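Technical note accompanying the year-one report. For the benefit of new consortium partners, we illustrate the data format agreed upon in the data management plan: each record pairs a sequence with a C-alpha cell string. No post-processing was applied to the example shown here.
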Amino acid sequence: MEYFFDYLGLKGTLKEKCLVFTNQAKNDLKWTRHQLMQHIEFQKERAEKGEIAESNINNYYKSVKLFCEMNDILLNWKKITKGKPQHRDYVNDRVPLIEKIKKLLDFPDRHIKVIILIMLSSGMRVGA
C-alpha cells in the first residue's frame, strides 16, 4: 500500500499518508478512480519493461482495493479493473523429454540423481 502512496507523491509517515489519502478519496471519488487506473497503467508499463511480472500487478491492485473497502471508500471496481491485464495462471514450463532425463541421471554425482528423481516423481518445479 505504501508503494501506491509513494506513487501518488504523499509525504509523511504511513499513518499520515493513509489519513491524507482517505480524506482525499472520500471527497473526490473521480480523482481516486483516475489515480487507481493510472497506477495500474504504470504497473503495466513496468511489466512490459520486465521490471515486474505481469501477474504481480494484481497484488498492487488487491492491497489498494482492500484499503479502500475497509475505509468505506466506495468505488466502481469493475471500471477500474477494465485496464488490469489478465494474467496466465500457468507457468511456461514443460515436461522434460526422456532423453534429457537420461542425460541428467547419467551425471556422476549421486545427489543430483536423487534430486532429479524426487522432482520427477512429485511433479516439483525447478524453482521449488
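Partners are asked to follow this layout when depositing records. The radius of gyration is 22 Å.
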